[in-house]
Amino acid sequence: MDHEFCEAASVKIIGETIMSRRTVIAGSVAAVATAAVGKTASGAAVVPAVADPVIELRQYKLNTGRRDAFITLFDREFVDSQEKLGMRLLGQFRDMDDPNRFTWIREFPTMAGRAASLTEFYTGPLWLAHRNEANSMIDDNDNVLLLKPSAEGLGFRPVERRLGQPAKSGFMVATVHYLWKAPKEGFSPFFETSGRSALERAGARVLGSYIGENRPNEFPRLPVRQGEKVFVWFTHVDSMADYERAMSALRGRAAVKRGSQMLMPDLEERPAQVLRLKSTPRSRL
């Protein structure tokens, strides 16, 4: 098969979970015809947010020393070509903790249209022309989480990026919580009513929060991790120093508000995983 782009007590403080348990998870198109990419008056490409989106959080293990070459190929050939078919490529990133990992996020307008989108892209002339070069640089690409917004309106908003021009530099941090129960049984309501606001008061603006999408993967050629009870939230910062300050502020506030909404129920099966990601030049986020 081708490689394709394919709390230890009863309560825990959010900041402690994020900072003390950092690990790295070892972790692609036509949409329906009406979901074509548009442009603003300035010439920027905008793919609108939609009512039933799903995203793939894709992490590739690349062959040693090949990440920069892979990013050059990806940003040149696989960004605009997918967006022109109606998808949003939300971000492409270097993993700051592993020089051989490349992470990217793409969004489909609907789950129902995902298989058709993937079929059109992966049988199309552009992928066929470049797949051998891309596959030669990939060691493993099966670490993929298929996700949907944790509640209506909590997915990524429209993000403008001028075609052919680099995005602003910055860092994305994705935090993956592995839960005992389904996210809706405690964790999602906690995050949406208390956790999110606590993070944002500390300076970590939440760009989107997601849970696992468990509807059948109708494009099995691209494996995805399903059946896992996960909750994933994303923040974007100008520097990792800004992120560290936000987490320090969160821990400080939690220390003086112990017993308040700053505390998180013990709903996690294992430590949260934190992905520290540096945007590539063509990344929206």
Keywords for this entry:
13 strands, 26% helix, alpha+beta, 8-stranded antiparallel barrel, 285 residues
Structure description:
The model is unreliable at 4-49 and 256-263 (pLDDT under 50). By secondary structure, this protein is α+β, with helices and mostly antiparallel strands. It has an 8-stranded antiparallel barrel, surrounded by 4 helices. Helix 1 (14-20) crosses helix 7 (240-256) and helix 6 (187-202) packs across helix 7. The protein has helices spanning 14-20, 67-77, 80-83, 114-122, 125-135, 187-202, 240-256, and strands spanning 11-13, 38-39, 44-46, 54-62, 88-95, 101-108, 138-149, 161-162, 171-179, 206-212, 230-237, 263-265, 268-279.
Write a short abstract of this structure.
This protein is of the alpha+beta class and 285 residues long. The protein has helices at 14-20, 67-77, 80-83, 114-122, 125-135, 187-202, 240-256, and strands at residues 11-13, 38-39, 44-46, 54-62, 88-95, 101-108, 138-149, 161-162, 171-179, 206-212, 230-237, 263-265, 268-279.
